[in-house]
Each structure stands twice: as C-alpha cells, then as structure tokens.
Amino acid sequence: MELDEEYTWRGRRVRLARRGSGPPVVFCHGTPWSSALWAPFADALSARHTVHLWDMPGYGRSSKDADHDVSLAAQGELLADLLAHWGLAGGDGDRPAPHVVAHDIGGAVALRAHLLHSASYASLALVNVVALAPWGSDFYRLVRDHAEVFAAVPPPMHDGLLRAYISGAAHRRLGDDATEMLAGPWLDPVGQAAFYRQIAQADQAHTDAVEPLYPTLDLPVLVVWGIEDAWIPVDRAHRLAATIPGARLELIEDAGHLVHLDAPVALAGVLHRWLSP
C-alpha cells in the first residue's frame, strides 16, 4: 500500500495512505518498524473499512530531520492532529471516531493521544504494546548514553547490529524479504542516524504519565499478545488487560513481538473478529 499522501506537521513531513470505504480504522506502528508492517492487514480490511496508515516522523518514509523531536510525547500530539486532518474523531459527534490498532510504542502514542489530547476512538486494539513500566532494554540505555557514537559507526557494523536487533523481535526466523522491509529505512546515512536518535529519545516518563489513567478508559479495548514475545513479556498483557475496565485479552501462540510476521493468519483473524459488527 503506497504512502501517496503527505501531511506537514510542525516542519515534519508525514507520509500517509487511505484506502477503502466503510468505518475508519487507523493503524499505528512501533519501533523500529514502519507502516509497512501493518500494510497487508490494512489492505485485507479495506474491502469493508476505510483504512489509514502513517509513518511516524523519524520512521519509514516520513522525514528524519536531526533537529526534530521524535519522542512519544510529540508522536501523541501528532496523532491527535492527524485524526483531525483525516476528518476523524470530532468531539461534536459530526465526524466518525476511528477504530485504532496499535503495536509496540504505537500503543503508547495512541494512549497518549486519547488520554492527554482528547482524540476520540470507537475502539482500541493494543498489540504487544509499550504501555507499562518498566520498559527499555540495556541496549536502549547504552544508545541513550552514546547515540552520537552509534550514529557514526561504519555502515557494515551498523548493518549487522541492526539486523541482529530486528531478528530478536521475531519468534520464527525472518525471511530475507521481511528483513529487508524492516531494515531498509535505517540503512542509508540519514536512516542510520535516525535509528539511534529515536532510541535515544525513548523515555519511560512518557508512559508513566498516562499509566495511572488506564482505569479511566471508557471504550472497547482489545489486548493482543504474541505469547513468545522476548521484548515485552506476556505478563504485561495480563497486567494491562486487568488494568483497563472491560478489556478483552487474546493470546496468540507461537508468536513473538513481531506477531504480524510470526502468526499473520491468527492476528488477521483476531482483528477481523474485533472490527466486525
């Protein structure tokens, strides 16, 4: 699904796509991914829904300017404004509220947009999301302390480090095509610097600010988790579902953090059932 639209937000160039007709669904990707991870699912749902994809600034095909804030705080504000740009989530009831499907830090972005910036959703599906403390790995902390050093490593070293990092998110061995799709945006000099920049700006404070508000969520929420997630263990799924009133929990076997690639049929089935009237 080609990102054939562009939205300018505070100097950032955000690549977008809209397809199909019917109730709106907005997909939010995580790190270090892009909307390409959601594209096959959006394409499948476009027969009955208007699907919306976007690459967060600093990711995928959106701008990766060195001086731009790409934190969860900035991305949450952007999502709220982007929904208005799409003509969605009007507080006056005249515009449709979208179903939102989010993965990884996209979950934190969607939660912040709703809880702090008044973005309205018809429902929220949270797939292996960053939402609960503690989060962030030793690698994150090392990059945060030495981001400029990592950004300057020779390209072959960066290539190997990046591919090893990405492979750890999957429970099954990633195919060559999937690896290239995930790694591609980060391989040129601009992408290399952006890869370490977005890690360096990751801050648990941005989820700490909204975690106490999860019990106030008053909309249908689905929590989906690949049981074999090595990045965010499945106990977080149980904790998150227990924190949100009325949340439904769906666990997917033989799938890790990249449940989209580990178990695409199972994930598609869960989302289809959730979004079907």
TrEMBL record:
Residues 25-268 form the AB hydrolase-1 domain. It holds the Pfam family Abhydrolase_6. Transmembrane segments: none annotated. SUPFAM superfamilies: alpha/beta-Hydrolases. It comes from the Bacteria. Keywords: Hydrolase. GO terms for molecular function: hydrolase activity. This is Alpha/beta fold hydrolase.
